Amino acid sequence: MTLAPDMAPPGGRSAVPGTAPGKLTDLFSLGLDAPICLTWELTYACNLSCVHCLSSSGRRDPRELSTAECKAVIDTLERMQVFYVNIGGGEPTVRPDFWELVDYATAHHVGVKFSTNGVRLDAAAAARLAASDYVDVQISLDGATREVNDAVRGPGSFDTALRAMQHLADAGLRGFKLSVVMTRHNIPQIDQFKAIADRFGAQLRLTRLRPSGRGADTWDELHPLPEQQRQLYDWLVAHGDQVLTGDSFFHLSAFGGALPGLNLCGAGRVVCLIDPVGDVYACPFAIHENFLAGNVRDGGGFEGVWKTSALFADLRKPDTGGACKSCGFYDSCRGGCMAAKFFTGLPLDGPDPECVQGYGEAALASVGSGASAGVGRGVPRSSVDHSHRTSPARPRGGAGSAPGAGGPVPVTIGVRPAASAPLGRPPAHDCDESPLAGFTPRPDA
Amino acid sequence: MTFDLDRAWQVDPRVSMRPEPFGALLYHFGTRRLSFLKNQTVLAVVRSLADHPSARSACLAAGVPEAELPAYARALATLAESTMISERISHDSRA
User: Fold this and answer.
1) One-character DSSP codes across A395-440
2) Which residue in A12, A264, A353, A361 has its CB near the most CB atoms, within 10 A?
3) Which of A16, A441, A442 sits opposite B71 (nearest CB)?
């Protein structure tokens, strides 16, 4: 999970003598009184059906928080001094009260970054964004060409994103984010993404694909090949100062030098997720009952969940390292991503499925997953799915699916058994959102 | 970057500062950067910058020993570099 903010040098050294108790990572690993930032998915509704959507978004959930409930959450975040929220979905801008909530948050000293596929980002919205210091925007794009992008995000999505970026550039907004989830198909395009970002005066943000939500169905086809991981790492080392990563590639640090960032799984420690119905999960990539800490509608509200959840208390315990403890690279990668392990059926105290030292493949083999998050092998699945049931939803296999809907898709989609795809599952959220995304903290002082 | 301890400084108005057990977290809404202060003393210094005619005075009032002033100057320099703190126009100059 992208749990750490887009922070500068890992660990950071203390500039002040005396009391500094070790590295920043160590301080953060035990948790904070409040999240630095968090991801807040405002709706499961989305106009797209991205094949890797981490929240399986598509359809609105009738239980979604009302405007008044959202404002109450913002009041809490202000009181807790949560610096900002990463708003996503679904497509958050389709909520009729989206701008009202953005304005309410910034008026209450809670900064906003939001991720969008650009569908509602017209010239007026761009002008509005350009006028605010407290709102930042990320445009999601997963291919530097129409072909590669639309294969994952759906027909028309490339043009929509580029049109939105043009509006932002025309409005004079600089430094907005172009957010890309790295896949097998777009890693060869990294330099092209950089060129697109430069063309619009945007900053490139690259994040890791997780086998979460519909990403579980497409993980086998989309996750980077081993040699591509090396290519990505080398690129990040060479360009690390120009791109944001939401600290999502800390598992690659085991190639050698640590990448910029906290290099820490911040789940429940420094970040978390509030989903559209108010459920609080440890991380945006872990929408599963095992990582559900509570609900903002509970008596203690969000603050109660953050401070008293037994799950979060457990996540804040010092890492033991487990099976990775004896590995010489453990201090670099910290065992990788909790969600990636969980949704590929791996134990949480062992190697990441994409462990660059190769331990992930062995671990996958030993749990019978092969190199796959395939179904029917005891791999956990989220019960939350709001995927579209009809066009433009993609064929999902199993009873009740609509094979062929939405036209041919150049990506093979894994088959999900009907039994594990109840109609009640939530929709797809189009963005790979780090709760700490946009943070470019530096260890000062 | 050298830091002038004898000038007047202040926390940038766009910075939010949140005390934590280890010191404090700072977030700058303009640059969208996060920083942290690693102990309570430096937090006390930064918090009181605006109330002192110089950073040196703020340090000494917070109990920083003379010998450690260079280290605190380095810490403040880092904060100044990231615009978490900025120089304050002297009140005298208004006259």
Assistant:
1) P--STT--TTTTS--SSPPPP--GGG--TT----------TTTT--
2) A353
3) A16
Spatial separation of the C-alpha atoms in residues A225 and A192, rounded to whole Å: 19
Chain A residues within an 8 Å CB radius of B37: 444-445
Put simply, the chain B residues between 23 and 52 with a CB less than 8 A from any chain A CB are 23, 25-27, 29-42, 46
Alpha carbon distance A300, B30 (integer Å):
32
Cross-chain Cβ contact A445/B30 below 8 Å: no
Give me the mean pLDDT over the A260-283 stretch: 90
Q: What mean pLDDT, rounded, does chain B reach?
A: 90
Q: Which residues contact A413 (CB under 8 A, 6 or more apart)?
A: A51, A217, A218, A221, A394, A395, A396, A397
Asked if residue A50 lies in contact with residue A64, where contact means CB atoms within 8 angstroms, the answer is: no
Q: What is the pLDDT of residues A67-125, one digit of tens each?
A: 999 999 999 999 999 999 999 999 999 999 999 999 999 999 999 999 999 999 999 99
Identify which of A18, A83, A109 has the shortest CB distance to residue B39: A18
Distance (Å, whole) CA A40 – CA A145: 29
Rounded CA-CA distance A332/A174 in Å is 33
Answer yes or no: do B35 and A24 touch at CB < 8 A. Answer: no
* Best mutation target, B12, B14, B36, to test chain A (most A CBs within 10 A): B36
* DSSP H or E run through A127: helix A123-130
Minimum mean pLDDT among A182-186, A363-367, A427-431: which range? Answer: A427-431
- Whole-angstrom Cα distance, residue A115 to residue A94? 12
Chain B environment of A15 (Cβ under 8 Å): 38, 71, 74-75, 78
Alpha-carbon gap, residue A214 to A429, rounded angstroms: 10
Query: Peptide bond before A392: cis, by omega within 30 degrees of 0?
Result: yes
Task: Nearest chain B residue to A270 by CA: give it.
Answer: B25
Would the CB atoms of A111 and B29 count as touching at under 8 Å? yes
Tell me the whole-structure pTM to 2 decimals: 0.83
Tokens of A366: 């030993």
Q: How far apart (Å, rounded) are the C-alpha atoms in residues A41 and A212? A: 15
